[in-house]
Amino acid sequence: MSLRRKIRLEVNGETREGWAEPRKLLVDFLREELGLTGTHVGCEHGICGACTILINGEAVRSCLMLAVQADGAELITVEGLAAGGKLHPLQEAFREHHALQCGFCTPGMLLTAYDLLRVNPSPNEEEIREALSAVLCRCTGYLTIIKAVRSAARRLPADTGK
Amino acid sequence: MKPPAFEYHDPVELEPVLELLRRYQSEAKILAGGQSLLALLNFRLTRPAALIDINRITGLSYIKEKPGWLYLGATTRQRAIEFSPLVREKLPLLAEATRLIGHLPTRTRGTIGGSLAHSDPAAEYPVVLTALDGELVARAESGERVLKAGEFFQGLMTTALAPDEMLVEVRLPAMPAGSGWAFEEFSRRHGDFAIVGVAAQLSVEGERCASARLAAAGVGPVPLRLESAEQALKQGGLNQRTIAEAAARAAEQTQPTSDLHASAEYRRHLTRVLTERAINRALERARGTRS
Amino acid sequence: MAAHRFIGQPVKRVEDMPLLTGRGLFIADLPVANPRHAAILRAPYAHARIVSIDASRALNAPGVHGVITSEDVAKLTRPFAVGVRAPVKYYCMATDKARFVGEPVALVVADDRYLAEDALELIDVEYEPLPAVTDPTRAAAPDAPLLHEEVGTNIACRRKMTYGDPRRAFEEADVVVGAEFKFPKISSTPIETYGVVASYEPGSGVLTIWANFMGPFILHSLLARALNIAENRLRLIVPPDIGGSYGIKTSVFPYMALIGLAAMKIGTTVRWIEDRREHLLAASSGTDRAAYRELAARKDGTILAMRARWLDNVGGYIRSPEPGCSFRPIGNWVGPYRLQHLEIDAGVVMSNKCPTGPNRGYGCGHLYFEIERLVDMLAEKLGIDPAELRRRNLIQPNEFPYRTPTGGLYDSGDYPAALERALKIADYGELRREQAKAREQGRFFGVGVALAVDPSVSNMGYISVALDPEVRGRPGYLPKSGATEAVSVRVDPLGKINVILGSTPQGQGHRTIIAQVVAEEFGVSLDDVTVTDEMDTFTRLWSVSSGSYSSRFATVGASAAAVAARKLKAKLVKQAAYLMEMPEEALEFADGQVRPRAGGEPALTLKDLAGRVHWNASALPESMEPGLEATAVFGFPEAKSPDATDRVNSSNTYGFIAEVMAVEVDPDTAAVKILRYVSVHDAGTIINPLIAEGQILGGALHGLGGALYEELAYDEDGQQLCASFMDYLVPTASDAPQLQIEHLISPSPFTPLGSKGLGEASSMTAPAVVANAVSDALKPLEIEITELPITPSKLWQMIEQARSRKS
Ligand code: FES
Ligand code: FES
Q1: What is the domain range of residue B98?
Q2: Is the pTM of this model over 0.90?
Q3: Which of B188, B265, B273 shows the shortest C-beta gap to C668?
Q4: Residue C709: which of B1, B4, B188 has the nearest Cβ?
Q5: CA C29 to chain CA mean position, Å
Q6: Which chain C residues are within 8 Å of A124, Cβ to Cβ?
C-alpha cells in the first residue's frame, strides 16, 4: 500500500492542506478531510454529476479523480460560489425558478451551469439542455433548472461568468 | 465503491514512466484522464498493482500542425480538442466526435490517448481514427513504433500496445480541401456510449467521390472500417441510389451482438440508417450547402 | 373566504438557502462522533444456499472492528413481520439462503469505508447455487424453483374479489376488449442513496438510528421487534435533508436493523452509506407485473365492467408495505369511470429479484397503463374517438362525493371539465388534423389521452385486504385503519411562532408550505414563523401512519397545521379576553392581534399577549392553561378498515389528472419524440403553485423514464444487468419534454384548506399517455403497446414485424 501523501491546494480562495492515501477519491478528501460536505456523492462512476466541482476554473467529476491529483490545484466547490454573502446569479435564479427540490443534485448542477456559461455566455435552450445532461436530477424534471440557467445567463455580464 | 489499494507513481517526465512499465509489465495501469479507469477502480473491476499517473508530464499535451497532418499528444484533453480552432479547421470530424464524448465535465479530464488505449468499441475516438487511418505512436524504453489504426485495435478493449509500451502521440491526416464530414450517433441518452456511431469524411469532385472514409462504432469488438461502402461510393458516384447501396453494404459488413440496450439486428439496421445520414450530411458540407 | 395572503402564492422556499450554498445536512453530512464505517458483502447468486461463512481473515485485516454474519443475524434478530399470511422469513440479511443478487450476507465495520471494502474481499463464503426464477408468471408455476420452503409456494398472496355482477355484465356486453400487459421493474433511484448511522448506549439501553427514512413509522415497531428491543428504547432520527426518495427510501428499514445490530454487537457508532451499485442491485423498486385485463362495453361506448388478473413480482421477499403494489389503489380501481362491475384476481409472487416497495405512483402507474390502453383499444374497436369515449364514461360533477364500487370515496372533482381543458390546451382537433396530414406522408404521428384519479393520503387499513375477509372476521383480529398527522404550534415570549412537524420531507418544501399556512392563519409575516421538521421518534408526536409518502403532506400535514393554529388562536382569544376584560365572543384573532370583532380598539398584538402570558403567567386565572401552544392530530373519519365485502376507502382525497400527448416515431430509428405534452390537474386548493408544479414536473419525468428508458433488467439466471447508471438509464435534461401544466380547483370537502395531494401525480399517467400516443402513431401498422419500456430497439422490432405481416 502506498503511503499517505500531503496535499496542499486552494479551495474557494483559501489554502488548505490534508493527508490522503493515493487511492482516496478527491470527493472523499473534500468531504472528510476538509469538511466540505456541499459536494455530494451520487454514483462514484462519473454519471450522476452530483460531485462536480471546478478545478482551475473547469468543471470536473470529483469522484473520478484522486485527491493526490489535485495537489497544487485551485478548486471551487459549491460552498465558494456565493461571494461575500451574496448569492451567485445562478444560485439566485435557481431559487427564483424553483430549480431545486431535495437539493442533492444542486451543487453539481450549479457548477456545471457555471462552466457552461463561462464557455458559452448566451447558450440557447438546446445547448443548456446538452450541458445539463451531465447531471442527473430526479426531483425537478429539469425544466425549471433549464429556465433558471437561461435567466442567469441573461443576468450575468456576458464576458465573465463570474 | 472505493478503489483497492495500489502503488502510485506520478513522474513528471516520460522516461520514468517507461521504466515503471518495464518493471511492472501488465501489473501497472497508466492513469491518463481517468474517466473510465477511475470508474473501473471504484467498482473494483480492475486491480492493478500500480497506477502510473501521467498527468504531471507537461510535454504530452499538445496539438501540432504538420504538413497534411495534425499531431496530438496523448494527454491532450478532450476539452482542449473540442475548443481548438486548429482542430475545428483541419479536422472538423474530430471536433464533432469530441462533443459527443460523455459530457463537458468528463471531457475536462478525458484525454485522447486514454480514450484510444481504453479502446471501447462504442467510443467515438477509436472510430474516427479508424475512418481516417490515423496513426498511433507507441513508445517503450526500447524504442518507438508507429501503428496504423487498423492494426492498433485488436479485440474487445484490447490494443496492440505491449505491456511496456505507452501511447504517446496520435496522428491524424488533416481533412483535404473540398471535403465534408459527419459523425452520426444513436444513443438512448445524450452523452452515453453510442448504440451505433458512424464517422464519415468524403472528398467530392463534382458528382464523383474522390475519397470516402467511413467507419462504424458499436457493431463489433473493434471499430469497423466500412470498406465496401467506401468502394460503392467511389465507384458509383454520389447519387441517392449509390448512397443507399453504400449504406446497405455497411450494414452487411457488421457483426454486432445483442445486449440490454439493443438487439444485433437493430444495430445492423442502425448502421444502414446512420451511414446514409452521415454520408448525406458530409456531402452537404462538402458542397457547402451546410456548415 | 377572504383573499389569501400566502396560501396559493408562489412563495420562494425557506429550504433553498442552505441547499444552494452547500450547507444542507444530509445523512452523509451528519457530524457524528467517532463513526466506524460499514461495508456489506452481497450475494453474487440469485438463489443459493449459504453453506458456510468464514470471516476470520477479515477480522484480522487492518482497521477492522468487527464482522456481522448471517449467523449473528439469525441468532440476535427476528424476521420482520410481513403483511401476508404466508410465513415468509425476511431478516435484515440472508440467513439460510440468498434469494437475489446483492442480498447482504455479511457486514464489516472498519476505520473507513476503503478498509471495510478491502476486508470484504477476505470473507470466504461457500454457496450452493440453486436454480433461479425471475419472471412472475414462471415463478407462480407449480414447478418453479421454490424460494421459501416454509411457504411451500412462491405465491405470497392471492385475492379474488368481485364487486357488482361482472359475469352478467360481460355476458350482456356488446363488445369486450382485452390484452396482456407487462409493466417493468423500475426505480426512481434518488440521487442520494440510502444512509444509516447507528449508535447504542448500553447504560440506557437506547439504540439511536439516524437514517434517511421517510416512513411510514409503522416500521418503527417492526424494527424494534426485529431487533428484540423495547420500542421506547429505539430512537429514530431523520436528518434535516433527504436527497429524494419517491417511495424508495421506505425500504431502507432492513439496513436500519442491520446497522443497528452492528452498533449493538460491535459497540461502536456505525455508519453505512450505500453506494450506487448497492442501490441498483439491492435497494428497492416497484414491482414488475404480468397482467391480463379486459373491458366490457355497450356499442355506444358505455363501459360496463372490468376484469383483471395480475401477478405482482415482489422479488425475493415480500416486505412491508407490500403487497401494497396490488392493493394501494383499491378504492380507485375503476379510475374516473362510472362502471360498477369488477372482478379482480390479484396475485403477488416472489422471485429471485430485489425486493420491492413503494415507488412513486405506487401501483397506480400499472393500473392506469392497463386501463387507459384498454380504453383506447375499445375506442378503436367501436370507431369512437378516444377522447369522446372517455367523455361518455366519466363520473359527473354532481355525483361527488362519489362512492366507487370498491369502496373509495372520491371527495370532489369536475372530471369532464378537466378533460375538456386538457383537450383545449393541446388543441386536440388541430393535432388530429396534423395527424391526418402526417399519415398521408407516411409519417408516424400519434396523439394520446390518459386520465387518472390521483389518490392521496393512504388509509393504513387498505393493506389488510391482502387477508381474506374470513381472516379479518375472526375473533381477536385487530382491524387497521387511519391516516393521521400531528403538528404543534407555539408562540415564544416575543410573539414569534414555532411550528413542529413530524414529517420527513425529501424535497417537497414542507417548511415553506407550513409557514404559509400558519402565517395565513395568524395574519403574520412569513418571517415570523419558523418550522422544524427533522423527525425524531423521542421528541415528535407521531403514530404508525407518520411519514411522508402517498402524497399525504399537503393534505393531512397542512390540515393539522391549520387546525393547530386555529386551536391556538382560540386559546389566545380566551387569554386576551381575560386580560382585556372583555367578553370572549366579542373578540377575534386577526392580522396578528386579538381585537374586537366589530373592529377598532383595543387590540392586543401577538407580541404583547405572548409577553404577558410568558412573563406574568400568574396573571391568568387558575382555570386557564398558561401555555401558548396547541397541538392538533388530524385524521380522516372516512379512513375505515375494509368491510366484509372488501370495500375500502384506500385513500382520503382523490385528485384528477387529464393528459394529452403528441408524439412522432422516427420510422428509421424507432425513436419516440414527444412533441406536445399537456397535463391538467385538479388537486383542490393549491398552497404553493411553485412547489405543486415542481411535483408534477418531477413525477411526469419519472413516469416517462419508466415508459421509455428505465428497467431493472435481469437475465434468465437472475443476474442483474444494470448495476450502474451506465445501464440503468435515468432521463437527462436533454430527454425532458416541455410540459404544459394547468390546474383546476375542486376543493376537498374533507380538509380545512380544501387541499389534496399531488406528489405522485403524473408519474401514474405518463406511462399510459405515452403508450397511447405511440400506439396511435403506429396505428397504420396495427401496433398496440402493451409492454414497457418502449425502447427503440424493441419498437423497431415491432415495426419490422408489422411491416412484414402487412406485405
Ligand atoms: S458521484 Fe461523481 S458523477 Fe456521480
Ligand atoms: S433536486 Fe433532488 S435530485 Fe435534483
Answers
A1: 58-173
A2: yes
A3: B273
A4: B188
A5: 25
A6: none
